[in-house]
Design brief:
The chain contains 16 helices and 5 strands. It is mainly α. The strands form 2 sheets. It has a 3-stranded antiparallel sheet with strand order 1-2-3, with no helix packed on it. The longest helix is centred in the N-terminal third of the chain and has 34 residues. The C terminus is likely disordered. It comes from Demequina zhanjiangensis.
Length: 468
């Protein structure tokens, strides 16, 4: 007779299978619509694409059930749904560029990156069988993360594209090291905060109902602030600095539940960003293009042309869009990468764009649910930090495209064209699912050690586990 736990696992696997079928159907339908409107629909080619997509979903489903059988059943279908929409829109842009005499193969290249990312996903699940082992490499991850973030500043190695210097050149290809640095820094933050949460949460004077940190505990915040400011000034990218600093502040709040850390962090970042905009012309130029995008002088200089074209494209999409293949997203520079959101907003409309953003909400919600359910403090912080990374990245790029905040060079996870982003985000999803497997696994472990610290008595969900 099957136990309740076995029945729950069986139902979960069946639900994931049906969700994967839905994601597969969305991918194939989107591809078919793009080919149809481009007068390029060939049923045999579409059939091979459908077969390949089904094969990829099946392989990932089996690998996940073997390597992480108790993991969340919603995350993988959500990711594949986003990728299916992305591949269709990038292929549609290839057709549009071809009509204008520009030969591109973004669609085929992105399929290759998706497959390579899926392989990285499986490798991570094979290599990391317990997420807690990453805590051994707390400071190593922090050092490597900072090095990766600063690599584009190395003369002769960094490349400036579209006004931001966040790439490094490897032969004829470009790599965005910040995409991998964010993962390493989340590991570092999780390990550091797990070890030092008592001092950060309980010590310090009170002011206006908030417990302020002691001056000696401000050291990590000051270091993160300085590093974020350096990234923003040297790489000419407010988005990378905001992502870097925002992940840290979010994880500090999860570890301490002190609003004072968030308030102090936001004040420091705003003051630093304003000061950098005044002191450094290239940072100020970004703010000027954001604040005065419609100004004829700013537009004619090219500083806000991309942003304005994207806004008009989304406006022409209206509520339900022009339909896949019926818009003109190719009129926006970098429509396949930085402005993939504007491209989808034009052809799918506000309704389609909200559906895509809902998928991101689901993905982040599952990461946060995993953080709540896992039993060790390091896993809670790690899962929450990875969720913050996805949230902030989507907010920063969507906010930039819609002119809510200054435009940056970040990529939209799983949607935008680019190998670095695709590989890094597959790794992020693999780590979330590894933690989820631990969180949802039936509790057959020995009793936890007694609560001995004030922080453990106040927040038993963050009780520190023995060192590995």
């Amino acid at each position: 007779m099957a136990t309740i736990s076995e029945l729950r696992v069986h139902r979960g696997r069946r639900a994931e299978a049906w969700l994967l079928v839905l994601a597969w159907a969305i991918a194939v339908l989107a591809r078919g619509l793009v080919d149809y409107h481009a007068d390029f629909l060939e049923l045999d080619e579409l059939g091979w694409y459908a077969l390949g997509a089904a094969g990829l979903a099946a392989v990932l489903h089996v690998a996940l059930r073997v390597l992480a059988p108790d993991s969340d059943q919603v995350v993988l279908p959500t990711v594949l749904g986003l990728i299916g929409v992305s591949l269709a829109e990038i292929r549609r842009l290839d057709f549009a560029y071809a009509d204008r005499g520009r030969d591109t193969d973004f669609g085929d290249s992105q399929i290759g990156w998706v497959l390579l990312g899926a392989l990285a996903f499986i490798v991570v699940l094979v290599v990391i069988r317990d997420h807690r082992v990453l805590r051994r490499f707390t400071y190593t991850a922090g050092i490597l993360g900072i090095i990766l973030y600063l690599l584009p500043a190395v003369p002769g190695l960094g490349r400036e594209i579209n006004g931001a210097k966040i790439w490094i050149g490897i032969g004829s290809h470009s790599l965005q090291p910040g995409e991998f640095a964010k993962i390493l820094l989340v590991v570092f933050f999780a390990g550091y905060l797990q070890t030092n949460r008592d001092a950060l949460a309980l010590a310090g004077p009170k002011f206006l109902g908030m417990r302020l940190p002691r001056m000696r505990d401000m050291g990590p915040l000051a270091v993160m602030f300085a590093a974020a400011l350096l990234i923003m000034i040297d790489q000419r990218d407010l988005g990378a600095a905001l992502l870097f600093f925002g992940i840290f502040i979010g994880m500090v709040y999860v570890a301490t539940q002190r609003v004072s850390w968030v308030v102090i962090g936001l004040v420091m970042f705003i003051v630093g960003a304003v000061a950098a905009g005044i002191a450094f012309p290239h940072v100020g130029a970004r703010y000027d293009a954001w604040l005065h995008a419609m100004d004829p002088d700013v537009y004619s200089s090219g500083r806000s042309e991309q942003l304005v074209r994207g806004l008009f494209g989304m406006a022409s999409g209206g509520l339900f869009g022009t339909g896949l293949g019926n818009g003109r997203p190719d009129l926006v520079p970098y429509a396949e990468s930085d402005f993939i959101i504007a491209s989808l907003g034009e052809e799918l409309g506000l309704t389609g764009l909200m559906a895509i953003l809902t998928l991101y909400v689901i993905l982040v919600q599952r990461a946060m649910r995993t953080a709540i359910g896992v039993r060790d403090g390091f896993g809670k912080l790690l899962s929450a930090g990875l969720g913050f990374a996805i949230t902030l990245q989507v907010f920063i790029i969507v906010g930039g495209v819609t002119r809510l905040i200054p435009l940056t060079g970040l990529t939209t996870p799983f949607l935008a064209y680019g190998g670095s982003s695709m590989l890094a985000n597959w790794i992020v999803v693999a780590l979330i699912l590894r933690i989820s497997d631990q969180a949802r696994r039936p509790a057959v472990r020995a009793e936890a050690k007694p609560e001995t610290t004030p922080a453990a008595r106040r927040r038993p969900d963050l009780e520190e586990e023995p060192a590995e």
